[in-house]
Amino acid sequence: GNGEIVVNEANFVRKCIAAESSQDDLWGKLICTNFKISFITHNSIPQQKFQYVHHLLGEHDIPLACVDQVVTVNDAKGKQKVLGSNQKLKFNPTELILYCKDFRIVRFRFDEAGPESAKKVCLAIAHYSQPADPQLLFGFEFAQSRQYGSSGNIIERVNGVDPGGGCQTPLFDRPSDWDREIKRTGASEWRVCSINEGYTVSPSLPEYFVVPASMADLDLKQYACSYTGQRIPMWCWNHSNGSSLVRMSSICDVQQQRKLDQRVSSAITKSHPQRSEVLTSDLDKTLPSIQEVQAALIKLRQSCVIEPFEESEEKWLSSMENSRWTEYVRAFLRHAVEVVYMLEGKRVSVSLQEEEDRDLCCVVASLVQLMLDPHCRSLVGFQALVQKEWVMAGHRFLDRCNHLKKNDKEEAPLFLLFLDCVWQLMNQYPAAFEFTETYLTVLSDSMWIPVFSTFLFNCPQQRAEYSREFVHSKSIPLGNEQALKFPPVWDWSQQFTLKDQTLFNNPLYVGKGATCVQNGTVKTFRRTKQRNYSSTVRGVPSALKNGLRGDVDTLSRRNSLVARLRPDFSQAREVTETPCERFTREWFSRPTDLQGLLLPQLLPTHVTLWRLYFLRWVPEASISQGGAITAFHKLSLLADEIESLQNQLRQYNTSGGVGGTPASTPNPAHPEHGRMYFKCTPSPNRAASTPEYLSSSFPFSPVGNLCRRSILGTPLTKFLNGAKIWLSTETLANETV
Amino acid sequence: MEKSGSVDSLGSRQSSSRQPSVDSLSSSSTSRSDRSSQAKPASAMSSDSASTNELSPELRQSKLPAKLLRGLNSNEPQLLPKETVQDTAKDVTYICPFIGALRGTLTVTNYRLFFKCMDRDQSLALDIPLGVVSRVEKIGGTSSRGEVSYGVVCKDMRNLQFAHRQPDDTLKKSIFEVLMKYAYPISNSLAFFAYDYEQIFPENGWKVFDALAESKRQGLPNESWRISKVNDHYELCDSYPSTLVVPVTIPDEDLRRIAAFRAKGRIPVLSWIHPETQATVVRCSQPMVGVNSKRCKEDEKLLQAIMDANAQSHKLFIFDARPSVNATANKMKGGGYESEDAYQNAELVFLDIHNIHVMRESLRKLKEVVYPNIEESHWLSNLESTHWLEHIKVILAGALRIADKVESGKTSVVVHCSDGWDRTAQLTSLAMLMLDSHYRTIRGFEVLVEKEWVSFGHRFQMRIGHGDKNHTDADRSPVFLQFIDCVWQMIRQFPTAFEFNEYFLITILDHLYSCLFGTFMCNSEQQRLKEELPKKTLSLWSYINSQLEEFTNPFYVNYSSHVLFPVVSMRHLELWVGYYIRWNPRMRPQEPVHQRYKELLAKRSELQKRVEELRREVANKAASLTSERAGSPTRSITPVQTFV
Question: Which residues in B lie closer than 8 A to residue A555 (C-beta atoms)?
Answer without folding.
Answer: 99-100, 121-122
